[in-house]
Amino acid sequence: MKKNRSKLPSKNQFGFLGTIIKKRDVGGVFLGGVGLLLVNIVLSLLFPKLYSQVIDTFLANGTFATKSIYLIGLLGIINIVLAYLQAYIIRLASERLGYYLRENLFKKIVNQSEKFFHEKDSSKLLTIIMNDINNVKQILAMLITNSISSILILIGSVFLMLSINSQLGLVIIASVGLTTIFIVFLMRKMGDLFQKRQKKRDIFNRIIKENVQASTLIRVFVAEKLEINKFANANAKIKDLSIKISQKFSLIVPMINFVNYLASFWILIIGGKEVIGGNMSLGDITAFQNYVNMFIMPILSFGFMSAMAGQAMVSIKRIGEVLNEKTELKNGTIKINQQGIKSVELKNVSFANQDNKILHNINLRVNRGEKIGIIGLTGSGKSLMLKTIVRLIEPTSGKILINNRNINQYEINSLRRRIGFVFQNDYLINGSLADNIKFGRQVSRQELKKIVKIANVDQIAAKFSKGLNHNIGEQGRKLSGGQKQRVRIARALASNPDLLILDDCTSNLDVKTEKKIIKNIKDNYQDIALIIVSEKIASIKDCERIYVVDGGKIVGTGTHEELLKTTFLYQEIELTQKNYAQE
User: Are 351 and 359 in contact (CB under 8 A)?
Assistant: First the structure.
C-alpha cells in the first residue's frame, strides 16, 4: 500500500511562513535568541570538564581548585542569565509570528467572496485561527531551537566522550542509539493521531457554535437530548484520541529510564575497569557520565520533536490551505467620484455553481431616483442576483455596469461605500443600538438622529432607559424580528448611499410601518436609487418598474398594472395573496 504523502505541506504552503519570518521583528529577533542559545550550549559543554578538574585536584592534593570553582560559579550565573534572555527573546519572536499569522489569516478571510464561505466550514476556520496558529507559533519556535541545540549538544557530547575514553564512548553510542530509535519511531507514528484529533476538534467546535446560535430552536423543539448526545459523542471521540496519544507518550518515560540504566551499567562495568587499570580518573568518570546524559537527551528530544513536527505540519497545512486560497474577486483601481452612482445595469448576467446554473441572462437597470421592485418565489435567485452588484458573488457570464462602466474596473470598497444593502438575515453585533447602526463608521449625532427617525428606530430607543445606548445582545436577541429589521435599515442608511437595496428585509413589519419607512427614505433621500425585493406585492406595487423572477430568469417586467395583464406568475401571486388577505 502506498503511503499517503498528502499530509506534508507543499512548498507553497510553507511560503506564508517564510514571508513572516523574513520580517526583522520576527526573524531578526529569533536569530538573536539563537545566537544566545549557541553561547549557552558551549558553556554547557564546558561544565563537565571543569567538574572533572575539581574532583581530580581534590583526590590528588586534598584541596579544592579554587579558580575552577570560581569559574564554575561565574559561568553558572552567565548560563542562567543567557538562558532567561534566550527563552524570552525566542518567545517574543514566537508571539509576533502568531500575531502576523492571525492578522494575515483574518485579512484573507474577510476579503473573500461569498463562495468561499459556502465552501468552507466556519467551525474549521475558527479552529485554525484559535488552535492551529497556537500550535505553529509554539511548536515551530521549540522545534527550531531544540533542533539546533540538540544537534550541537549531540556532536559536542560525542566528541568529548570519545576524547575521554573511545572504547566506552563507542559502546554507549551503539547501545543507547539503538534503544532510542524505537522512541523516535514511536513519536513519528503520533502524527496521524494529531491530524485526526484536529478534525474532531472542528466537529466539536461546530456543535458548540450551533448550540449557542440555535439555543432557542433547540428548546422549542425539545432537542436538548439529541444535542447532548451529539456533544457527548464528539467529546468522547476527542477523549479517545487523546488517550491514544497519552498511551504512546506514556511509553516514553520507561524507555528513557531504560536508556539511563543501560548507560549507567556500561559506565559501571567498563568505566570501573578503566579506573582500576589507571586509564581513567574519577573526575573522568564524572565528566563522562555528564556527557552521556547530554548525549541521551538530544536523541530523546528528536523523538519528541518528531511528534511535535507531525502536529505542526498538520496545522501548517490547514493554515496554508486558507492563506493560499485564490481570491476570486479582482479589485479595480477606479474610485467612484463625488457624483456617485447614477445608474446600475445588469447585462445578460448568468451564474452557475459547478454544473448548476442558477441565474440565466438577467437584464435589469436602475437609475438614480428610481424605485424598482423585484418579486419571485422563494429560491428563485433574487438575492443572488443583487449580491453581484456589491461583488459578493462574481457572475460566470455577462457584465454589470456602474455609470456605464464595467463594475470590475472600480475599487471594491469605493463601490460598496456607495451602496446600502439590507440582507434578509443580516447580522447584528453584541452592542448598543447606536453601535449597530454606525458599524464602525463616523456618523455625526445629527445624522444619527435623522437616520433613526427615518427607519423608525427612535420608537425602539424610546422604550429603553439608555435609548440608543441600550445593548441589544448577541445577534440582537433582545429585539423582536421587526425591531431588528428597522435597525438593519438604519445601518444601511448610515453610509448615505446612492443605491439602497432592501432584500426582503421588511417581512416582519406591518404594511403601515413598512410604507412609512419607504416614504421616509424617498422624502429624505430624493436622489437615491431604491431596489426593493419582496414576496409581497403590497410592498412593491407602487414601484416605477417591477421585475418578476422565476427559476433564475426574469419572466416579466413592467408596472403593477402591466404585469397583471402580461405575466402569469405575477397574476398567480396577486390572486393567492388577495385570497389569503380575505381569509
Answer: yes
Q: Where in the chain are the domains?
A: 11-323, 343-582
What CA dihedral angle connects 32, 34, 39 and 42, to 10 degrees? Answer: -170
By the 8 A CB rule, do 114 and 387 touch?
yes
Burial status of residue 266 (CB atoms within 10 A of its CB: 0-12, 13-18, 19 or more): middle
Question: Which grid cell sits at 10?
Answer: 507543499
Q: Which of the 8 DSSP states describes residue 325?
A: S
CA distance 575 to 424: 25
CB-CB contact of 429 with 509 (8 Å): no
Say how many residues make up the chain: 583
Q: Which strands make up the sheet holding 545-550, listed edge to edge?
A: 419-422, 499-503, 529-534, 371-376, 545-550, 553-558
Instruction: Return the closest-CA partner of residue 315 out of 477, 135, 153.
Output: 135
Better-predicted residue by pLDDT, 397 or 202? 397
Residue 341 identity: I
CA dist., res. 103 & res. 20, Å (int): 11
Is the pTM for the entire model greater than 0.85? no
Query: DSSP of 446-504, one letter per residue?
Result: HHHHHHHHHTTHHHHHTTSTTGGG-B--GGGTTS-HHHHHHHHHHHHHTT--SEEEEES
Query: How many degrees, rounded to 5, is the angle at CA 556 between CA 551 and CA 557?
Result: 130
pLDDT tens-place string over residues 73-110? 888 888 889 889 988 898 888 888 888 888 888 888 87
SS3 at position 532? strand
Distance from C-alpha of 59 to C-alpha of 141, rounded to nearest angstrom: 44
Helix (H) / strand (E) containing 367: strand 356-367
Positive or negative torsion for Cα 379, 383, 385, 388: negative
Distance CA 505, CA 183 (A): 62
Which CATH architecture group holds 343-582?
3-Layer(aba) Sandwich (3.40)
Fold (CATH) for 11-323: ABC transporter transmembrane region fold (1.20.1560)
Instruction: Give residues with Cβ within 8 angstroms of 342, minimum separation 6.
Output: 367, 368, 403, 498
Q: What is the DSSP string of 124-187?
A: HHHHIIIIIHHHHHHHHHHHHHHHHHHHHHHHHHHHHHHHH-HHHHHHHHHHHHHHHHHHHHHH
Q: Comparing C-alpha atoms, which of 358, 453, 521, 340 is closest to residue 532?
A: 521
Give tens-digit pLDDT for 484-534: 889 899 988 988 899 999 988 887 888 888 888 888 988 898 889 999 998
Would the pLDDT of 114 be above 90?
no
Three-class SS of residue 110? helix
